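Problem statement: downstream parser choked on a complex file, so we are re-checking the raw output for the magnesium ion run. The parser issue turned out to be on our end (a line-ending mismatch), but while we're here, posting the original submission so the record is complete.
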Amino acid sequence: MPLKPAVLCDLDGVVWLMHQPIAGSVDAIRRIREAGHRVLFVTNNSHATADEQASVLEGIGIEAMGSVVTASQSAGKLLRRGDRVLTCGGPGVAQAIEQSGAVIVGRSDDPNFDMNTEVDAVVVAFHRTFDFAGLTKLSAKIRSGARFIATNDDATYPTPHGVIPGGGSIVAAVATASGVQPTIAGKPYAPMATLVKAVLGETDLSNAWMVGDRASTDGEFAKTVNCRFAHVQSGVANASTDLAHAAFTGPDLASFADFLLGSQN
Ligand SMILES: [Mg+2]
């Protein structure tokens, strides 16, 4: 029997909001899986590790161990074994760097970082300790020739209290200060598409779906992967206007499950 099309699923604004499940999303994932579709959660949240995010999904009733790919993991794939890395960010990016065989030689928020340290790559991710001193270290090392890798370029991050600056705002500051544009690992860029295809073991995803709440990231990522885009309106920061290429539009993940499973009858 041929495999049913895979479903790539965004987390923030689709499955949950700040880890609070969106009504119907847990049951929707169960129904999609029971119908034989493989589900892979694809998130630009770089802070937590993939296993930590899988644990939180399991806490709301979604089996997810081994089914979460993050922008940090994608950034790790851009490193070479032995690369000396200056970084910033949460445990997700640190783990991804170490798993790539690269070595973290410093953190930009460490006041004791020695600027004479040799650095091959600078990996920038969301962190709340970002400040002028950190910006100085990150941009100086890039100007000196270190490769500039960003986990993602989301300008903002939705919270129940409104949006806060996202990793992309920090990346933009580093790009301005260094005069260098980064290689961006997360959605909607090519490195994440390469990682998703490797994890699924499939190169042709033209029948697969990407379900997301933002056309600018999830919709564009569907184009990069060359799969279909399902837009759901359950995100907090829903500024999506260009939905011309969405093959499905609905209020939430439950409505997408109804559509996907109903269309198979
Ligand atoms: Mg989202």
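For whoever reads this later: The pocket of magnesium ion is lined by residues 10, 12-14, 212-214, 235 (CB under 6 Å).
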